[in-house]
Design goal:
The chain has helices at residues 25-55, 61-88, 97-103, 116-143, 147-173. By secondary structure, the chain is mainly alpha-helical. It has a single domain (25-173), classed as Ferritin, CATH 1.20.1260.10. The chain binds fe (ii) ion.
């Protein structure tokens, strides 16, 4: 008899909530892995967006500087929900910056000087790539009937597509 099944009637058993989400073990593993990569990508893109916000230059400085701050806030706001979804379904998430670097799929940009148009092109491409990863993770959630994670992802896809739209309109006019 497990510790969970030995809990007193009416009381939640001690220990991690392995079965509170009603997902299979394989489902938890696959979704948790996807969430971990997504969180790493979100931290990488957040920092790159802030990096470009800080190092922006040129005659459109104010507009671009403010736009990238809005985008960074929106991207960062995903992080806590991504991490806590993993915990809610009984998985674990990232522990450190080195953990981020091991799991991110989006690439960093450590160049000292980047032209404004290059910054916006790169962010447009990164946000497009992030949208693709969100769609893939949504399919994984659908496969395992994790409607709550899928629901969060749907909003993030919409936000991500909006960022791609704004960046694309600017890049297209340059
Ligand atoms: Fe700022």
């Amino acid at each position: 008899m497990s510790a969970r099944s030995a809990a007193a009637p009416g009381k939640l058993p001690a220990g991690p909530p392995e079965d509170l989400a009603g997902l299979s073990k394989a489902g938890v593993e696959e979704i948790t892995t996807g969430l971990r990569h997504m969180l790493a990508d979100v931290f990488a893109l957040y920092l790159k967006t802030k990096n470009f916000h800080w190092h922006m230059s040129g005659r459109h400085f104010r507009d671009y500087h403010l736009l990238l701050d809005e985008h960074a806030d929106q991207i960062f706001a995903m992080s806590d929900d991504l991490a806590e979804r993993a915990r809610k379904i009984g998985g674990t998430t990232l522990h450190s910056i080195s953990d981020v670097s091991q799991h991110q799929r989006l690439t960093d940009n450590n160049q000292a000087l980047v032209a404004p148009e290059k910054m916006l092109q790169e962010l447009s491409s990164d946000n497009r790539e992030l949208t693709g990863y969100l769609r893939s993770l949504h399919e994984v959630c659908d496969k395992h009937c994790d409607v709550a994670t899928a629901s969060l992802i749907e909003n993030w896809i919409d936000e991500s597509e909006r960022r791609v739209w704004f960046l694309g309109e600017i890049v297209g006019a340059l």
